[in-house]
Amino acid sequence: MTATKPIDHARRTVLAGLGTLALGLVPVLPAGATPEKMAAAIAAFTGGAVPVPGKMMLEVASLVDNGNTVPITVRVDSPMTASDYVAAIALFNERNPDPGIAVFTLGARAGKADVSTRIRMATSQKLVAVARMGDNSFRMHSADVVVALAACIEGEA
Amino acid sequence: MQLRPTLLALVLLLPTLLLLLLLCAAPVFADDTRRSGAEFISPSTRAMQRDDTLNPAMLAVGDGKLLWQRKAGRSDTSCAGCHGDAALSMRGVAARYPAFDAHTNAAINLGQRINACRVRHQQAEPLRFETEALLGIESYVALQSRAMPLAPPPDARLQAAVQRGQQLFSQRIGQLNLSCAQCHDANWGRRLGGATIPQGHALAYPVYRLEWQGMGSLQRRLRNCMSGVRADVPPPNAQELVDLEAYLATRAAGMRMEAPGVRP
Amino acid sequence: MARALVHMPAFARRGAVIEIRALIGHPMEIGYRPGADGKVLGRDIIRRFTCRYNGEIVFAAELQQAIAANPYIAFYTRALETGSLEFTWEGDSGFAHAETMPITVTG
Description:
The structure holds 3 protein chains of 3 kinds.
Chain A: H1 35-46, E1 52-53, E2 56-60, E3 63-64, E4 70-76, E5 86-93, E6 100-105, E7 114-119, E8 125-133, E9 138-147
Parallel strand pairs in A: 1-9, 3-9
Antiparallel strand pairs in A: 2-4, 4-7, 5-6, 5-8, 8-9
Chain B: H1 3-24, H2 43-50, H3 57-69, H4 79-83, H5 86-89, E1 99-101, E2 106-108, H6 110-120, H7 132-143, H8 159-169, H9 180-184, E3 191-192, E4 195-196, E5 207-209, E6 214-216, H10 218-228, H11 239-251, E7 261-263
Parallel strand pairs in B: 5-7
Antiparallel strand pairs in B: 1-2, 3-4, 5-6
Helix pairs in contact in B: 3-7, 6-7, 8-11
Chain C: E1 4-7, E2 11-13, E3 17-24, E4 46-53, E5 56-63, E6 72-78, E7 83-91, E8 95-106
Parallel strand pairs in C: 2-8
Antiparallel strand pairs in C: 1-3, 3-6, 4-5, 4-7, 7-8
């Protein structure tokens, strides 16, 4: 009944180099995110060492409300003593434009290897957490997360 | 032995009194099928709202708390200069908006009332809609009504706005030819894409919306919805938006305020 | 929203592991989104967060664009001595913010 503005949103379109007509803020994400890039980023963090799965937990909802803000908690099972502690925890993803998310520096003084934050996820994908232990060994854990897109594509009028 | 009959009378009377009290309470009780939008979001989003140490909207409240003390305008007074401690003076205020403003002879929402104060009493410039400053003060004031029942004023002068709002709520709009009622009255609880349709009770505004990655007013949400069904979007503070707000307040009357909330 | 909110206990027993929650207002602009004029907005994020306990760094974070707007970080540290914890955030466009919280350690 009412005339409308020709708003056309192709949200989360991964088309490198294509300009947008968007009236809203639609990101044009470079088609650069791949599982291989993530593997390379992990290798850069570990210096080539292969992280061993286990002794870690990645707490994240399996289906998220909105990919803009995804709460995530990573925990490493470690006594955090001077001889047995987590030195750092790195977070990676396989389908955002960049494979790295964050690197947290801990140490024995942390008392607990338990870090929470909120991340962005461009689409459903795998998340990987890698812990560097005090003895320079590495552990890892991964989680698959489904990101539901909003049904009503809204423009910011 | 003398006391026993009195005690007995009390024991019999008390439950009856309690029952009467409960029956007279606000219309949110056993048969009420109304549910807050907080029940339709993921547990982690709900947890963000419930815990002030997790809630991003508390940043806006912090802004508002500062601005409450800041002098403004030619009057060189702050909100606190007239209203004192907001925790006392603003208690229950947000729950009573939209209200009728005799000066403009129209229904106004809380943000408009804040600006009316700025212009009339502080002789300051009004704050632009959706700015951090206005949303900050609004969040701070709305927080003072948290957990209180939404109590739209029983003001006969508001009825015209409420009725217009109710009519708008049921009116199909946009290329998608949908009315608010079709989703939020007839299909709440069902899924639209990946999201569950809430009932659309405006209890949490101003809200930190994950989609916006920031704060916004109820009007921002309404305008987004209208854009979502490909309808003409009224400009901010248009009368039809305030009318809708007035209707939504009566529709949710008695439900507990949650502002400032978090939504996907 | 340029403010920060830090939540942590003001009192702790010596050796206790305490939780610290830090939230700061910042858009964390990813650098791929077009602005209203169609031009891509440059990256503008917080790059580094540190927590110093009486001057010693006890926790740090290097952040990238995938950290959500208005970054929230929660972590733990041992309460070893009375003093203060200083939280700093630094980022693009010369962004810098600091908060200080006192702690009294008994026992």
